[in-house]
Automatic annotation (TrEMBL):
Pfam families: Pkinase. It comes from Caenorhabditis angaria. Residues 60-331 form the Protein kinase domain. Its EC number is 2.7.11.1. This is non-specific serine/threonine protein kinase. It comes from the Eukaryota. PANTHER family: CASEIN KINASE-RELATED.
Length: 362
């Protein structure tokens, strides 16, 4: 028998107010197919958590699997009451013999932040006998997948700059609620797929969030040692050192994200050992010479001003969000947040910039 589900009235009100902008893919004409969520082949031997055509909670009909990770699965579903398409994220209630808490934390954070522009709309959340679940706004494929769809596997300066600018807004909102994300990376960034939100970045996956502030806004006391949380490729040097994370560590992860989007890959892409990755990150932070043709990691990238400010941040205070965004103006140029992004113009700008860089390096 199902346990009572947890639903947020604010989220329901937000859903009603945004009925016209809900992400029904059939109604969207300006969204390129390449950024729409894609069905994944379901392994019949993998025991999926939900079945195709199953009607979950007597309302949402499962269409297919669109995402899968170590903590659970994400399904595309149709709301039989409203005719909308939604995403349903589920995880087993019990993991390795213990009660799973990751999605419970995510549910609480999403509820608190409803109404903020860079947070997915939450329609319902709760638990059944065997699963924790979140039902939320359907979004594009993630930014990492979009970058890989580019012929040069890079994004343009203006698109990268605007992604970083919007993510800073998203992190500012989260930090004001007293949370740090602890897993900022391209795979956790998407865009809306409705007519009015297709240029709005949405920050996802709050499963690793942590409260770093007290209710009065003061920083919590820092632990001398903290467990590793995050993804090796994107965490800060401090996280590699098992130090307590703060809001600045989210920003450092964002810098690495921007570098990867615009350059095409991070210098430590091929490394697996955390200590080796940490060593290269320290070299980047110290602006040491890079082995190879480039004099340093940021030569010709126009990220150097942003990087210098990021690496100078004090982990005991919140970052200067507006100043960080000012450093991105050189990338964004005269583009507005609502101007077309690379994937809406066949990546022409990214390809042109890549050709220029290739010719200048000859």
């Amino acid at each position: 028998m199902d346990s009572p589900k947890i639903e947020d009235e604010t989220a329901q009100q937000q859903q009603q107010q945004n009925t016209k902008t809900c992400s029904n893919m059939e109604k969207v004409s300006k969204i390129p197919d390449l950024v729409l969520p894609r069905m994944k082949k379901m392994d019949p031997d993998a025991s999926p958590l939900l079945g195709i055509d199953e009607v979950f909670k007597k309302r949402w009909q499962i269409q297919g699997l669109i995402g899968k990770g170590g903590y659970g699965e994400i399904y595309l579903a149709s709301d039989t009451k409203r005719g909308e398409e939604v995403a349903i994220k589920v995880e087993p209630k019990i993991r390795r013999g213990k009660l799973a808490k990751r999605m419970i934390l995510e549910q609480k954070a999403l509820m608190k932040m409803q109404g903020k522009p860079h947070v997915p709309r939450l329609y319902a959340s709760g638990y059944t006998e065997n699963l924790n679940f979140i039902i939320m706004q359907l979004l594009s494929i993630n930014i990492g997948e979009i970058r890989k769809s580019s012929p040069c596997r890079k994004l343009s300066k203006s698109t990268t700059g605007r992604i970083l600018h919007q993510t800073i807004d998203a992190l500012h909102d989260m930090h004001q609620f007293g949370y740090i994300h602890r897993d900022v990376k391209p795979a956790n960034m998407c865009f809306g797929i409705g007519e009015t939100n297709r240029h709005t970045l949405i920050l996802l996956d709050f499963g690793l969030i942590r409260r770093y502030k007290k209710e009065n806004g003061e920083f919590r006391s820092l632990r001398s040692k903290a467990g590793f949380r995050g993804t090796h490729r994107y965490v800060s040097v401090r996280v590699h050192s098992k130090l307590e994370q703060s809001s600045t560590d989210d920003i450092i992860s964002l810098l690495y994200t921007g570098y990867e989007l615009m350059i095409g890959e991070l210098p430590w892409k091929s490394l697996e050992r955390g200590d080796e990755i940490k060593k290269l990150k320290q070299a980047m932070q110290n602006n040491e010479e890079k082995v190879g043709n480039n004099k340093n990691y940021f030569e010709n990238s126009q990220l150097i001003g942003f990087a210098k400010l990021v690496f100078s941040l004090d982990p005991t205070i919140d970052p200067p969000y507006s100043k960080l965004q000012d450093e991105l103006k050189i990338l964004i140029g005269n583009k507005k947040m609502d101007d077309p992004y690379d994937w809406e113009d066949d990546f022409k700008e990214a390809i042109e910039e890549n050709d220029i860089n290739d010719n200048s390096s000859k």
